[in-house]
Fold this protein.
Amino acid sequence: MYRKILVPIDLAHTDKIPKALSTAIDIAKHYNATLCYVSVTGSAPSSVAHTPEELADKLSTFAQEQGKAHGIDTDSKVISTPDTAVELDDRLLEAIRDTGADLVVMASHPPGIGDKLHIIHSNGANIVKHSDVSVFIVR
């Protein structure tokens, strides 16, 4: 049913999304699908990597480790953009098209006061609204 599953990931926060990662792995195993881990990054250094190229190396290593640990095929893609806060959703939508993903599994942020006041927008909701593929939001 699914051939390629896109998983947006921030390597600085993998400890906060174990359910989303496990869900993606379970679905990939069930359908013998490839997991494609995707990170969107700016050009400024971060706590994970100094450059987008360094992040690409680390994400590739993460994907390979996940593949070996769980017996699944994996891939990775890093997308650089000048402003991740503004362009994150658009870059993820491009990644869905570019990779040929037919499912997205992504973590939801925990609801808080920003949601009640409509200050924080939902990346997951935007991906659901604007993508042609199924999207599984994991809380």
Observations:
- The radius of gyration is 14 Å.
- The mean pLDDT is 91.
- The chain has five helices and five strands.
